[in-house]
Amino acid sequence: MKYCRRCLYPENHPLHLTFDDAGICSGCRIHEEKDSLDWAEREARLTTLFSAYRGKAPGKFDCIIPVSGARDSHFIVDTVKRRFGMNPLLLSYNRHHNTPRGIRNLAYLRTWFDGDYMQHVVAPQRVKAITRETIHRMGSMYWHVLAGQSVFPVQIAVRFKIPLIIWGAHQGLDQVGMFSHTDEVEMTRKYRCDHDLMGVEAEDLVGGTQGLRESDLVPYMYPHDREISRIGVRGIYLNNFIRWDTKQQHTDMLERYGYETGTVPRSFDTCNDVDCQHHSGLHDWVKFAKWGYGRASDHASREIRLRRMTREQGIDMVAKYQDTPPADKQTFLDWVGLNAREFDGEIDRFRDPRIWERAKGSWQLRDSILNHREDSGVDAARLPIKEDWSEFPVTATKDPDADESAYVLMARGYSNDHRVRPEWPAPRS
User: Fold this and answer.
1) Interior CA angle at 427 toward 91 and 70, to 5°?
2) Cα–Cα distance between 323 and 365 in angstroms, integer?
3) CA atoms of 374 and 359, how far apart (whole Å)
4) CA pair distance 304, 109, nearest whole angstrom
5) CATH code: domain of residue 134
6) Is 293 a member of any domain?
7) By mean pLDDT, which of 126-140, 245-259, 366-380, 406-420 is the weakest?
8) Domain count, the chain
9) For residue range 94-132, what is the model confidence (pLDDT) as tens digits?
């Protein structure tokens, strides 16, 4: 397997990447734009864009922001509402595997920003049937989350005639360099289907092993092009206009808003995906089982590109986390209604034969980044370190009695401890 000589990504990355003559991947090359673009000019473009939508929708909302109890939600809402003075409608798709910590973080966000919020909760039995179908169809236990969180904002934009949706970072740009920042690529039905949904639309799941009906899948169906065009719905990505640095953003937002982080089982990033019981556990193990790499490679590659971590330090992180077993597996199996043999058999059908082989009754990696520490050309591809690596922050829990391993489908959405928001400067006009 060929690996990038700068970051840790392999050539079989499911979003697809290319290598240049120096052995550096397209994701690393596009990432170099972060150190060369005029970000003040790009923010000015964002200011102009927002001005075209402020106060223009029929209701009181200028835009829609999808949020969760982790990732960059606080940063996105802070940027859009505090810095640029937009009035967003916040909304989220309920992924069903919520942690108490994630529920609390979402409550903090909703309380600090004192904004209207909507959540879509699909009936649990329907979600379980869809999940069993997608495990069988494409080895994905997370399709319903990817489909729901990417379409619910679009459905609401059409229904309430709010044409602007604001997303955070475009994964295809930030990971594999599918686009340049200057392309200002936007959210589309095609990108969502081809990449987020692994080529499978909701309509494709009708029937199948679970006998799903079209009515079961309506929450995951993208609005018709006529509706999109009639309202003028568009989804922009902030990372096209703002230099995206997840760790720095969390450092700033934690100081300002005081939400919670937490350790996760298969990576060192304590700020992302702490709102889900499985994303950095079994879900990441499934990714590893299919492609031979996981979230530790994603996060280390990002830190290498941001010049905080050496490639060797990144490989050490992969070595530390790669083989961590998913302790949450049985919890998920009990929820979805499968046994371990059934689940493992389904996932095994989707292992990439370029990286996995069956030998002596077990699956063996043909190769991994651990074997590529001394590749030729690494020193020539290396970026100079600009900031010494430090661990991601782990905050103290604000509810020490909570069982953080328990599923929480819905809970109180207001935090008494976050009634008085920090002082905000005047927003940009």
Assistant:
1) 35
2) 11
3) 27
4) 30
5) 3.40.50.620
6) yes
7) 406-420
8) 1
9) 999 999 999 999 999 999 998 899 999 999 999 999 999
